[in-house]
Design goal:
It holds the Pfam family CoA_transf_3. It is built from 17 helices and twelve strands. With 409 residues, it is α/β, with parallel strands linked by helices.
Length: 409
């Protein structure tokens, strides 16, 4: 793999995380050129065996494949003395160590920050947890939907009295992953300036809370209560109409237009004398209901064309098929396609950051468990005999089949 021109070329990351948040953060570091070694159990990381959507793949399920490109896999049993010693040896030359063990597990394994920083004071140690490393919720499961519910965000949209609707993404996991990615980069910059490593702690509860900077400030500073409407308004702190509305053949989004202009376009005379900054709050349910009733008269395309011509903010409601085939998505090159040695031609979301001189690329597809065990250990100075001994003891595992290199378009 030749990534000499990539921004993080020359940095090595030991990714000891599972599930989504940690692997996503590590994948982003790999996308920027870091050598990410995925340190996983000899039987493979948990996500290899838990397929989102039930899509198992050939040898690599889609869940794992989507979160582990641009990584090498080292399969090792950290509960065996030889396995732990091997990891500690790799820490000596690592730049970033990333883990999302349950609080207390890293210390029991002897891979906590204090232990590893004693070996390598320049190490950036990123620790991800559900609720924090200590405190009353330290033993609670840090699962995405549980944190969505606790975040307060679900009660900022929808109908009063009805069960809230969760986000259609693994929202808290994704936000936490990007927060950890940001923390790792900032700590690396600090190290470049000072030479010192440090502990970086990220938790899911803080990540999803701080994401709502504006909403929570309206509540804490402006003292405006979080009050849902009888109609399925999309956000308690944005004036009506604001939400998804049915048309004669589908759905569209309408976002807080001028009430007078909207009334003229949809044929709703009661809107003509309303004042945007007062009536759109005090008469929110009425405005939503009347907008909904009027919009069923035309198709989505007809309304969108009319609204665009009159500078009203409106847009389509896409499914994934629509999104993937959108011309702007195609223009942006949002998705990448490459050949994976066991899964065939793969199309997945690509890179959200574009660099003019150091573009990201898919250098490796998601690895098989232990695919790079020999390669990683040989580079670390282990002899073939040492590796064979570790394999025989069960301290490590290696995939004997050597898949062809991934081919990016």
């Amino acid at each position: 793999m030749d990534n000499k021109r990539n921004i993080l070329s020359g940095y090595r990351v030991l990714d000891c995380s599972i599930a989504m948040a940690g692997p996503l953060a590590a994948q982003r570091l790999g996308d920027l050129g870091a050598d990410v070694v995925k340190v996983e159990p000899v039987t493979g990381e948990w996500q290899r065996h838990t397929a989102a959507g039930g899509i198992t793949g050939n040898k690599v399920n889609v869940s794992f494949l989507s979160l582990n490109r641009n990584k090498r896999s080292l399969a090792v049993d950290l509960k065996k003395p030889d396995g732990k010693a091997l990891l500690l040896d790799l820490v000596k030359t690592a730049d970033v160590f990333l883990q999302n063990y349950r609080p207390g597990v890293a210390k029991r394994l002897g891979v906590d920050y204090e232990s590893l920083s004693a070996i390598n004071p320049r190490l950036i140690y990123v620790s991800i947890s559900g609720y924090g490393e200590t405190g009353p919720y330290v033993d609670r499961p840090g699962q995405d939907l549980l944190l969505q519910g606790m975040s307060g965000a679900m009660l900022s949209a929808g109908r009063d009295g009805e069960a809230p609707t969760p986000a259609g993404q693994y929202l808290v996991d994704a936000v936490t992953g990007y927060t950890a990615f940001e923390g790792a980069l900032a700590a690396l910059l600090h190290r470049e300036r000072t030479g010192e490593g440090q502990l970086v702690q990220v938790n899911m509860l803080d990540a999803i809370t701080t994401l709502q900077m504006q909403e929570l400030s309206v509540f804490t500073v402006g003292a405006k209560p979080q009050t849902r409407s009888a109609e399925p308004h999309a956000h308690v702190y944005i004036r009506a109409p604001y939400g998804a509305f049915a048309t004669s053949d589908g759905f569209i989004i309408v976002a807080f237009p001028s009430l007078r202009l909207l009334g003229e376009l949809i044929g709703e005379p009661s809107f003509l004398d309303m004042v945007d900054e007062t009536d759109s709050w005090s008469r929110r349910d009425e405005i939503f209901a009347k907008t909904r009733a009027r919009l069923t008269a035309k198709t989505s395309a007809e309304w969108l064309a009319l609204f665009k011509a009159n500078d009203i903010w409106a847009g389509p409601v896409y499914g994934y098929a629509d999104l993937v085939n959108d011309p702007q998505i195609a223009h942006n090159g949002t998705f990448v396609e490459y050949d994976h040695p066991t899964e065939g031609r793969v199309k997945t979301p690509g890179f959200p950051i574009r660099f003019s001189k150091t573009p990201s690329a898919v250098e490796r597809g998601a690895p098989l468990a232990g695919e790079h065990t020999r390669e990683v250990l040989e580079a670390a100075g282990y002899s073939a005999a040492d590796i064979d001994r570790l394999l025989s003891s069960g301290a490590i595992a290696a995939t004997e089949e050597e898949p062809a290199c991934v081919t990016a378009p």
